[in-house]
Design goal:
Structural class: mainly alpha
CATH architecture of the largest domain: Orthogonal Bundle
Order of helices and strands: EHEHEHEHEHHHHHHHHHHHHHHH
Number of domains: 3
Low-confidence stretches: 284-289, 346-362, 392-399
CATH topology of the largest domain: Hypothetical protein af1432
Number of helices: 19
Radius of gyration: 22 Å
Strand order of the largest sheet: 2-1-3-4-5
Strand content: 5-15%
Helix content: 55-70%
Shape: globular
Mean pLDDT: 81
Length: 401
């Protein structure tokens, strides 16, 4: 069992000493109680890391000698448990391509101290709950997640087509949990600074762009595909069924587009913790394969890769019986999708790999079943209640203004 150091130890790296001095001055004023260490370059940073355990490294990208991309690679190799953040004002595509596999999150200069603090705290919170060195090291080493080989063949064939559209590519990637994790991470952390947070895989593909994904695919940032793995196939099929059914409930309940996208993403990633084990594959091919440890590990992985707290809360709520779904329309839709997916025959699950219109017919039928209709009704009630509550708060604020 491990615990974060008290205080948390954060290493800042930049080849410009005045930048480090400015960071030190500003962050000291915030009084977060961190133990802050500073290094003027990659070599010194590695020496500092060797001195004692560190929780987070925040590095500039463009530095002489060992630059940010090379430093992240070396930190992953030597100290995989360290959270790896790059703070950069440079957007050189080549440098980003080199860094994207080993960097957990990117922050853009000038970065407000509040944003930096919030990023660090948001990432470390689930790590405290996980509280295991072996899991933190294992999760910290992950560069990509496994996909069934058939899915990867489909992606490669699509990227080879000059005329592939972002919508079509979004449908392919949005049907696979591992591809979705990567493209959503890229859209928000690497290519989404100052823009609305994306949760819908199709929107993520559109933001990153087909040409960039072709270049990234050559790195490769996606797994080559896992052949002959019934467990992974079953796991991916269940995840997709849950997502499709959950979205069907959300759409019938007339939740807004942004919330419906969040519902789909939570359904698709709700058992992601099953991939956090020693071999990176689900233990039994069904949900909850690693139990409570898998839930905590999956939550930490998503935080490490910069996924929003709201999404992670919904995913935890599916597995934690103490959470009352009546308080959250989003969670209610995903829980309903989870229940429906558990009852859907395997033949229908395999049918989810059919063209989009046929997939929608299958999931629509289940979302419109008696069980599905009960979840839709519950969602509508919660959504209406939430809207009334928001309107009441706005009215109160207007009166107080």
């Amino acid at each position: 069992m491990t615990r974060l150091r008290d205080p948390v130890r954060v290493l800042f790296v930049d080849d410009e000493a005045h930048v480090l001095k400015g960071l030190e001055r500003v962050l000291h004023r915030q009084n977060k109680g961190w133990s802050m260490v500073f290094a003027t370059g990659g070599e010194e940073a590695l020496s500092r890391l060797a001195e004692g355990p560190t929780d987070v490294i925040v590095s500039d990208m463009q530095m002489p000698g060992i630059d940010g991309a090379a430093l992240m690679q070396e930190v992953r190799r030597r100290h995989p448990e360290v959270v790896r953040l790059i703070l950069t004002g440079h957007s050189d595509p080549g440098m980003i391509l080199r860094a994207v596999r080993t960097t957990h999150q990117f922050l853009v200069k000038p970065c407000l101290p509040e944003e930096l603090i919030e990023t660090v705290e948001r990432t470390l919170e689930p790590r405290r709950r996980l509280g295991r060195d072996d899991e933190c090291r294992r999760i910290g080493r992950i560069e990509r997640l496994p996909s069934p080989s058939g899915r990867m063949e489909q992606l490669r064939a699509a990227l080879d087509r000059p005329s592939i559209s972002s919508d079509e590519l979004g449908q392919i990637m949005g049907a696979d949990p591992a591809m979705t994790v990567r493209v959503v991470q890229l859209s928000n952390s690497v290519y989404g600074h100052g823009r609305t947070l994306v949760t819908d895989p199709a929107d993520a593909v559109a933001r990153v762009g087909v040409d960039r994904l072709r270049s990234l695919g050559e790195m490769p940032i996606f797994c080559e595909g896992v052949p002959d793995s019934p467990e992974l196939e079953a796991w991916a099929r269940h995840s997709l069924m849950t997502a499709r059914c959950a979205r069907g409930i959300a759409e019938r309940a007339e939740l807004d587009r942004s919330t419906t996208g969040l519902v789909y993403l939570a359904g698709l990633l709700h058992d992601l913790g099953d991939l956090m084990g020693a071999d990176g594959l689900p233990a039994g091919g069904t949900q909850d394969g690693r139990g409570g440890l898998g839930v905590l590990a999956g939550d930490y992985f998503l935080a490490l890769w910069g996924f929003p707290k709201e999404l992670r809360g919904v995913i935890r709520g599916i597995h934690e019986p103490v959470t009352d779904s009546r308080e959250n329309a989003t969670l209610s839709a995903v829980q309903g999708g989870h229940e429906l997916a558990g009852q859907m025959p395997q033949a229908c699950g395999e049918g989810l790999y059919l063209p989009l219109n046929q997939r929608l017919e299958i999931t629509g039928a289940f979302a419109g079943s008696s069980i599905g209709n009960e979840w839709v009704r519950r969602c509508q009630e919660l959504w209406t209640r939430g809207m009334r509550s928001s309107e009441g708060e706005e009215y109160t604020n207007e009166r107080n203004a």
